Amino acid sequence: MSYIRRKLGDLSAYAFILPAFLILGLFLVYPVIWSVVASFKDIKPMALQQAGLFEIPGKIVGFDYYADALQNPLFLKALVNTLYFGIIFVPITMLGSVLLALLVNQKLAGVNFVRTVFFIPYIISVVSASLIFVFLFNGDRGLVNALLSNIGIEGPNWLASSVWAMPVIAIMTCWRNIGYFMLIYLSGLQSIPTDLYEVADVEGASKFEKFRYVTWPLLGRVSLVVMILLLISSLNVFQEVYIMTGGGPADSTTTVPFLIFNRAFKYYEIGPAAAMSYILFVIVIIITIIQKKLVDKRLG
After folding, report:
1. Which of 31, 34, 37 is nearest to 61 (CA)?
2. Residue 272's closest CA among 81, 49, 70?
3. 103-129, pLDDT tens digit by residue?
4. Of the candidates 176, 182, 90, the residue with the CA atom closest to the CA atom of residue 132
5. Start-to-end Cα distance in the chain
6. What confidence tens digit (pLDDT) does each residue in 217-241 have?
7. Are the CB atoms for 26 and 32 separated by under 8 Å?
């Protein structure tokens, strides 16, 4: 017993962390395992209702749901819509975050207040932010169309248009997140040695040249983190779509997470929804690995 105690150390420490492990296992690890198994089984809603907590009913169908998802036109369209959202959301958020970080990195009076103002949208709930933009881009009584009409432009019915609905959702998401990523870039800016800027001043470098050859290269690791976080956010966009458009019009804003939600909780197709979620997971992993290799190659 004393040998085991010497090897394991103070056993009371394990008693303290045991509740956390139980909670993580029950609410994180087990649902992941359950969903993996469910993606290979045909689960009927009635059988699921009568099953126990650790029981996964249904017959095994193998990789049928994965194959069906990859051949499903709506799933492929949802992938394209999600990619379209990311193409708008990621670059605008990164650029806006960097510019705001450069702005609030100045030693000016009231700069802390300005930082707070820029960060406030991030702490607003997705529901509240979505409703704000629904009001702003309302086709009949929206503020945006009212301002456009004052200069002689007739604005479209933004959220009812298959062309404009997704950009509006992406812009709203950018507005919510720019302040948060601004702080990440700000921490990166403040970690850059001032000696490098003094050397650049001696060499006669302009502000743009200092940003291009000093600031941006040294923000490479920070940019990788920001890009990965933005990519994950863009591939998991759901609440905004659910509140603002409900996937319409004509499925033009149906993203993969929104489609997974509908298949699982609206039509109770648990297996197909689980298969789609793991296809999305694999896509996220592949893109993240590619991004890391590209950044490591550039920084190396």
Report:
1. 37
2. 70
3. 998 887 888 888 999 999 999 999 999
4. 176
5. 51
6. 888 888 888 988 898 889 889 999 9
7. no
Q: Tokens 């990789």 identify what position?
A: 63
Residue 259 token pair: 């489609």
CB 271 within 8 A of CB 47: no
Phi-psi region of 44 (alpha: psi -120 to 50; beta: other; left: phi over 0): beta
Q: What is the mean pLDDT of the chain?
A: 87
Percentage of the chain modeled with pLDDT above 70:
95
**Rounded distance between C-alpha atoms, residue 231 and residue 229, angstroms:** 5
SS3 (DSSP) at 125: coil
Query: Is the Cβ–Cβ distance between 284 and 45 less than 8 Å?
Result: no
Alpha helix ranges (H) inside the chain: 2-8, 11-24, 30-38, 45-50, 64-71, 73-104, 111-123, 126-136, 143-150, 165-190, 194-202, 207-210, 216-218, 220-235, 239-244, 256-261, 270-299
**Is the pLDDT reported for residue 6 higher than 70?**
no
Euclidean distance between CA atoms 98 and 220, whole angstroms: 12
pLDDT score for 198: 84
Q: pTM value?
A: 0.87
pLDDT tens sequence across 74-104: 999 999 999 999 999 999 999 999 999 999 9
CA atoms of 82 and 66, how far apart (whole Å): 19
What is the architecture, at CATH level 2, of domain 74-299? Answer: Orthogonal Bundle (1.10)
Domains of the chain by residue range = 11-60, 74-299
Tokens of 269: 């197709």
The one-letter code for the residue type at 71 is Q
